[in-house]
Amino acid sequence: MKPQITIDGRCLKTGIGRYVLSLVEGLWELPHEFEITVISQSKDASRIAPFCDHVRILDAPMYSIQEQVLMPGSARGADLFHSPHYNVPVLYCGKMLVTIMDLTHILD
């Protein structure tokens, strides 16, 4: 069985979304010996599906308790889970890569 990389791709309208699309497209074009799974909102699933092996739908509101409860299940089976923003699932127990794009919004 191939290792699975799971990417949180629910935020496709922002700069983070551009990063996620570019990352997933770039990984898909490489010869790879892993499966790519993207967690997507249902409205964006068809946009991301051509560049991954699997799409999992999670329509929970961003930055919500519901998101925190449901995300670990959506990332199940991942050998590596990538969160491209800082709302990482605190209850997720697997290997995780987090990218923090910008911290200027927390500066005084």
Provide the descriptors you would attach to this structure in a database record.
alpha/beta, 3 helices, globular
Describe the structure.
It is globular and about 45 Å long. With 108 residues, the chain is α/β, with parallel strands linked by helices. The chain starts with a strand and ends in a 10-residue tail after the last strand. 27% of the residues lie in helices and 20% in strands. It has a five-stranded parallel β-sheet with strand order 3-2-1-4-5, with helices on one face. The mean pLDDT is 92.
What is this entry, summarized?
This protein has 108 residues and is of the alpha/beta class. 27% of the residues lie in helices and 20% in strands. The chain has a five-stranded parallel beta sheet with strand order 3-2-1-4-5, with helices on one face.
